[in-house]
Amino acid sequence: MSYEPPTPPADLPTDVIDTLNDYSPELLRHVAQYAEKFAEYREREARLAENNESKEVEERPADLPGDVPSKATITVKEINDNRYYYWQWRDGEKVRSRYKGPVNADK
């Protein structure tokens, strides 16, 4: 263990260094533990945000109309003995639907 104080990282702001210089060893250890956990939290949040953005782009079906949200799912409804696909999604308390096409396009 060196008798010299450690050299702070070059990108650490001076006001942070000055503030830390006033702290007791016990408080510095608390700050270090908190900073490590907070850094992990920030990294996790950034990864989640990045994953959500990429999923929205990747998972949006090519035939999804522009006015239908990407969270919509395809459901099948039977009307007069014919089956049809509908885009369906929740909008607040309401369930919205938009016609997609017949289940069996050969009919």
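Second entry:
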Amino acid sequence: MSEQIAFLGLGSLGTPIAGNLLKDGHTLTVWNRTSGKAQALLDQGAREASSALEAVTPGGVVVSVLADDAAVEEVLSDEVLARLGEGSLHISMSTISASTARRLAERHEAHGVKYLAAPIFARPDAVSSRIGNLCVSGSAAAKERGEPILRPLVKGYFDFGEDAGAANVVKLAGNFMIAATIEMAAEAFTLGEKQGVPRQAMYDLFSQTLFAAPIFQNYGRMVAQHTYEPVGFRLPLGLKDINLTLQTAAEGQVPMPLASLLRDRLLSAIAKGRSDLDWTGFALGASDDAGL
């Protein structure tokens, strides 16, 4: 069943998600906070709105892929929610804090809007190929309408219950684990390099044996080769996610010493002028420390 969808946020993930929704037969009205990013989607049949308010339709579906908590709360204003009204659905695919997701769900409910958290694990190429994995949480009614839209977009679809914040806890935990893998690879390959063992040779062994998993194979290759461009996920956004992880941990009184180390690695990378690299670029910190 095709839907009339307002798609808000045309960044590196939003654009390929929107493109796949168009291929699935949905009608899209797109909007982005900075102009000039919609042309490829317009060429595929999308319509562009001049504001989020103009993009949404009463009783319709909204899909948002926005940069951070503040952006989601600003864009999905009470004015926008009031226009959506009863019977509408907002699918939030942004990586935000669990507390923000819960607060958004309450605001949505006050306007009769269903809220579905649906953050995705995928880099842009994986989104385009529909091999990402999706975490969802929200009411049964929100999932009933949202699932037919979302399932065709991904390889894996995982339901974490009715708590609107649950899917975002899982997304933050996953991004923390990815960052920890990057740090692990950076330290291990730097150890080998300092002893005369080629980084690539170590990667070839570990990616086929002890760590034969997609995350290590993909990110480990970037770290082994010091290949941090093209950018799939900007380094400052990685810092945002690790800060959200630590915020969530503090709220639940959960010590995460490794997350604190990762935050400092990311901060250091930004201080050294590496903000335009992929977030994997914080791995250079291990080389810096070793004098390489």
